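>> received
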Amino acid sequence: MTFDCADPRSLSIFWNATLGYEFPAPPPGFASWDAFSETLPPDLQNSASASEDPAGAGPRLFFQRVPEGKTAKNRVHLDVRAAPGLQGDERMAALEAESERLVGLGATRVRRHEPGPPMDAGHIVMQDPEGNEFCLD
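>> returned
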């Protein structure tokens, strides 16, 4: 899954903290991605970043710098499973707690949807630090 963004490294740090992901190993011969980045021309530094599920089960996220800003609502978004197996008030309390944690990491809370038929157990719409929508589900 690829994100167009202004600051790939910062956005990947946010998603690493949100999902429990990690940066992939740096290129051979480099102790860190920062050390690798320092070898690049200034215009290529922080032009891309990636995040991976350390268990290898979730999708890889790729972040690429683009010159234009976000202009419209996402047509595709991530649902972050923050309350699997929970229902009712217990579910919504878990979503609220996760929303507060992510706001502390730089996310923006957009709105809360109360549980309702037929398929909505309740969720919270959020935006990452660059305005990409996602749901706490």
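>> The longest strand covers residues 108-113.
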